[in-house]
Write a structure and sequence with these properties.
21% strand; alpha+beta; 4-stranded antiparallel beta sheet
């Protein structure tokens, strides 16, 4: 019984230590913390407990991003599926679907191209129906640059028109999994 209690306590201390170590921004991590993070990386990454500080510093995103999927049916119709946006969900749904935000942020990047086919297949399955099969799914990234703040107390000027950019970064035929 004593061994079991010791093992449970050791797990709790290790878990809390790992979370605390991952919460320290990379530039501020001393060598022992970096070593702990390398040791716990497989566990933290697989379970989604890692932390990223790119939202805050040193260079936060200066663009507002969105990702959509264009689903084309065999009859030529097209439907747009938008990745879930946290600001459009209820508090309960935000809690349950927070990982969708990370998915939307990352799937648009070329370095995550390995997930593009699975993402397209997932969206295609959402729409594929007997008698109304999906022919193709295309992934589209949209972004708008966030203008530099301006005002009497801030330097810079804001343009009245902010252009929106769009780029289809992946498209693949969809093999229907629904019997005809």
């Amino acid at each position: 019984m004593r061994l079991r209690a010791w093992l449970v306590n050791a797990f709790i201390v290790g878990y809390v230590s790992s979370i605390a170590a991952w919460s320290i921004p990379a530039p501020l991590q001393p060598a022992p913390v970096r070593a702990l993070n390398r040791l716990t990386a497989p566990y933290m990454l697989r379970l989604g407990f890692w932390q990223g500080w790119d939202l805050f510093a040193p260079d936060p995103l200066a663009i507002n991003i969105d990702v959509e999927a264009e689903v084309t049916f065999r009859d030529g119709r097209r439907v747009i599926w938008a990745f879930p946006r946290m600001e459009e969900l209820s508090y309960f749904d935000r809690y349950r679907k927070e990982r969708y935000r990370k998915w939307r942020e990352r799937v648009r990047l070329d370095r995550y191209r390995v997930v593009w086919p699975d993402t397209a297949r997932y969206v295609g399955r959402l729409y594929d129906r007997p008698g109304d099969p999906v022919a193709e799914v295309a992934l589209i990234r949209r972004w708008v640059e966030i203008p530099t703040p301006a005002g009497p107390w801030l330097p810079g000027r804001v343009s009245a028109v902010v252009p929106t950019f769009s780029y289809q970064f992946f498209a693949a035929p969809f093999a229907s999994e629904v019997p005809p």
